[in-house]
């Protein structure tokens, strides 16, 4: 049995802080779409 996974990172630009930083959200998908 073979399993596949993917990791996706994206910036939450709507929650930018006063110092110019923004949180990074991550998504991990295993055996799915």
From TrEMBL:
Pfam families: Arm-DNA-bind_5. Residues 9-32 form the Arm DNA-binding domain. InterPro entries: Arm-DNA-bind_5. This is Arm DNA-binding domain-containing protein. It comes from Segatella maculosa OT 289.
């Amino acid at each position: 049995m073979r399993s596949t996974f993917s990791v996706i990172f994206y910036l939450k630009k709507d929650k930018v802080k006063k110092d110019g930083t923004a949180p990074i959200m991550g998504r991990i998908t295993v055996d799915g779409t």
